[in-house]
Amino acid sequence: MAKTTKTRESFDKELFKRSVLYNIKTLYRRTLEEATPQQIYQAASLAIKDQIIDQWMDTQKAMEEQDPKIVYYMSMEFLMGRAFGNNLINLRAYEGVGEVMDELGVDLNLIEDQEPDPALGNGGLGRLAACFLDSLASLNYVAYGCGIRYKYGMFRQEIHDGYQVEKPDDWLVNGNPFELRRQEYAKEIKFGGYVRMYQDENGRTMFKQEDYQAVRAVPYDLPVLGYGNGVVDTLRIWDAEPINNFQLDSFDKGDYQKAVEQENLAKQICEVLYPNDNHIAGKELRLKQQYFFISASVQTAVQKYLKNHDDIKKFYEKNVFQLNDTHPTVAVAELMRVLMDDYYLEWDEAWDVTTKTCCYTNHTIMAEALEKWPQDLFQRLLPRIYQIVEEINRRFNIEIVNRYSNDHNASVDEKLRKMAILYDNQVRMAHLAIVGSHSVNGVAKLHTEILEKRELKDFYEMMPEKFNNKTNGITQRRFLMHANPLLADWCTKKVGDGWITDLTVLKGLKKTAATAKAGKEFMAIKKKNKERLAKYILQHNGIQIDPDSIYDCQVKRLHEYKRQLLNILHVIYLYDKIKSDPKFDMPKETFIFGAKAAAGYRIAKLTIKLINSVADVVNNDPDVNGRIKVVFIEDYRVSNAELIFAAADVSEQISTASREASGTGNMKMMLNGAVTIGTMDGANVEIVGEVGKDNAFIFGMSSDEVIEHERKNDYDPMSIYNSDAVIKKTVDHLIDGTFSKDKELFRPLWNSLLNTKDTSKADTYFILKDFHSYAEAQSKVRKAYEDKAGWAKMAMLQTACCGKFSSDRTIEEYVKDIWHLDKIKI
Ligand code: 26W
């Protein structure tokens, strides 16, 4: 750790050391020698927090003086990952703290490992939110992340006999040293009851929710540090508490039942993150979670604004709400409610403010992820909000009628059917989000195109001005500086440290990439990172892998559309090749998987079992002779992801074209010098655009081809199976006992490819169709890897060309096109 993490001059090592020792003493009545690593971690965190608080207060002061516009990033998920190391990096104190720990005889890595991963998110959408906060603070913007303080985050995954077992993620057992409870900002949130209408003394019609159940929303603030700029933004996550503690006399008043109910409601709301990714469960509790954190956040934003502004009609000039997918969409109606019921705006005035404040990002086209709520449930839980949604819908329907009744090319009925917010006894959240926002964006060029041309075509035609693309990005501070300090230092040595705040600086490496010497250095670093991962895998999985083998990595949520099954079928195919031709020559290759499956997703869980079963057979077959190895890394999460990205040679991005909205793991691997094998899907398209098609291994159908097959409904995997002996043999290994004594065990996977009962449900993700093209791309990868110098050059080019994929670039685009924020000066 040399140049890159060089500590700022103002960091006072002696003061920090004293502070750690003092904290150990006052918190635990212990000396350093007596303290556990967890206690040292807590003590060191508090010492860091002390420094953060000063900057946090300075940021608040600057905000009050400069009155910049603020973005509220509203999201049910923030997959922050560990804060300790990241805070040290952004404080520019990582190296200094490392030295202090050395002097104390403490291993900094061991201390970092004491922190549980805050995993308040499922996958891509939640991690994107975390990268965005890092970039916002680093670029001097004032931002609030608004979310939920789940007691249990994403479950911990254990593998028992090859199967996923979910264990609760009790991330708060030892407390969270970085958080601040702000009970003075608590808000009341109301559910249920009915709406009473009456005239007030000024003759205004008023709407009042009565006979409701209430909970108290209490915010906890987490600091979000900008890199080296003294800015500290806030992630505000809400916890639920009972409104009034159990009062004995409520029993006498006949309120006993209600008191119990309210208490239970408060206990439930923030209990656990829904572990579904790209699939709705449609549970009432989830809608409660949504309204809970949105109502609290909207009330807060309005009150904060009115502290130093008097015209609520100009709220949008100083505030913008970004809705992270449809999950926070009740914000549209909640803001309307607050503006009308609490601040007496007329409908049109409130609507003007609301639509100018709200913006919506779509993150998926997967039909099963589209949020729709049963109308009666929505109405029962949120009676006033429902009234407002009804009125938004009524007015929007009139707009549709006005717009299309004289249009001979359009049928008004069809437009209403396709676009109404309330339809078929459902509340369609995406439609509410689009109608209530002034900006609708997709997360990669291809994805936005698909939204405009297909998924949201009618909306695009009616309001094209709202639509725009914002290709996702990732933060280089976490995914290069923290994840891969060796490579970070190497980059700094070659092109200076400007890349830390401007990733395009890395394009300076292109010249470097041409030299053999640089290639050797680059691959030597890769090797070190591969050894680090091998050590982790040996410790956690008990499997020995060879750091000289190709590390082929697919780490992401387990989902059929992401096609982990295609990957493992290809391994099975290679295994067959080796078995039938003992001399089959290939470079050693390790296939690394990491993935959590939603707890109720049967096929996904069975895929995990299959990967582990294939690993058992392949890894222990003497005929294989170490040529291929398969590893499933347990409990994939941000902290071990960092180790994997740094060590990857090959980045598997093999979703069925059109299905992966963007992907961000693809960018993290690229940044660390992994070469992509992938389909032309999501941001892969743009990755190829940057690195050039000769420096990526692209295969499979295009998104147009996929969509065309679906339209014509003419894909027949059975005919492929019957006419292609290789595919038949490979697929039949699922049911011939090769990987399980119970031949029926993997039958559901076989059926998912070749559903004989309902052919329209066979191989919906085109695995067999893309199989040969994938196998061929894999064989090209092996060939390319054998040319050591050529590979080194290609790997370096990945790092050199990934400037576009910094979340700093993404955030600047949001600011310029949508948010129009002001930078603050500290
Ligand atoms: C209601 C259940 C549910 C939960 C999560 C539905 C949908 C989601 C997310 C929108 C799924 C998600 O994380 N999507 C991913 O978003 C990333 C960030 O934009 C993209 O890079 C991924 O391609 C996309 O799958």
UniProtKB/TrEMBL annotation:
The modification N6-(pyridoxal phosphate)lysine is found at residue 668. Its cofactor is pyridoxal 5'-phosphate. GO terms for cellular component: cytoplasm. GO terms for biological process: glycogen catabolic process. It comes from the Bacteria. One of its GO terms (molecular function) is pyridoxal phosphate binding. Gene3D superfamilies: Glycogen Phosphorylase B (3.40.50.2000). Its EC number is 2.4.1.1. Coiled coil: none annotated. Keywords: Carbohydrate metabolism, Glycosyltransferase, Pyridoxal phosphate, Transferase. Transmembrane segments: none annotated. It catalyses: [(1->4)-alpha-D-glucosyl](n) + phosphate = [(1->4)-alpha-D-glucosyl](n-1) + alpha-D-glucose 1-phosphate. Allosteric enzyme that catalyzes the rate-limiting step in glycogen catabolism, the phosphorolytic cleavage of glycogen to produce glucose-1-phosphate, and plays a central role in maintaining cellular and organismal glucose homeostasis. Phosphorylase is an important allosteric enzyme in carbohydrate metabolism. Enzymes from different sources differ in their regulatory mechanisms and in their natural substrates. However, all known phosphorylases share catalytic and structural properties. Belongs to the glycogen phosphorylase family. This is Alpha-1,4 glucan phosphorylase. It comes from Butyrivibrio fibrisolvens.
